[in-house]
Protein: Anterior gradient 1
Amino acid sequence: MCPSRCLAAVDLERGRLYLVHLFHSWGHITHTLNMQHWIVCVLLLFLVFCDVSTQRKKKSVQTLSRGWGDDITWVQTYEEGLSKAVDSKKPLMIIHHLEDCPHSKALKKAFSEHQTIQRLAKSDFIMLNLVHETTDTNLAPDGFYVPRILFVDPTLTVRADIAGKYANRMYTYEPADMDFLAENMMKAKILLKNDHEDHDDL
Structure:
């Protein structure tokens, strides 16, 4: 009887140790799962924060562009545009428009879809679009109509010589005039570059 009792005791001890092992293993698994759960939660919170930040930044960019080109860097005010034009020695291109004007909307759509214009605006110009007139009357050589587009060179001279196709509204453009506007942008860039080279020679 003693050997049987000893074997039973051994079996009971083994069973107890096995249960203890299972308990500790389950605790380790539960701890690991909890850690993984917290890691996943932290990662999700981080991704949400990054997405919110991106959306806010995108919203800010879109607010300044007002649909004229979200990939373009836009200045917020006329004064900021003049300052950046001087510092960068790039011409300032100013688009006067109104949000509820059908002609402005049509021009905006054509402007934003023209690849050459978007490329030039992004790389070679300081860009500003305005829905309110400035106090500088030089920006309205032939009247305060919209839409109209003018260029200001880095010497802060309004380039009234770079005009559109229409005698009654010299600085307006139609959606069909986008190639002509692109040519005017190239003209402004080249003329202004040559002007500065002439000033540098002096």
About this structure: Residues 57-61 have pLDDT under 50 and may be disordered. DSSP finds five helices and three strands in the chain. The longest strand covers residues 92-96.
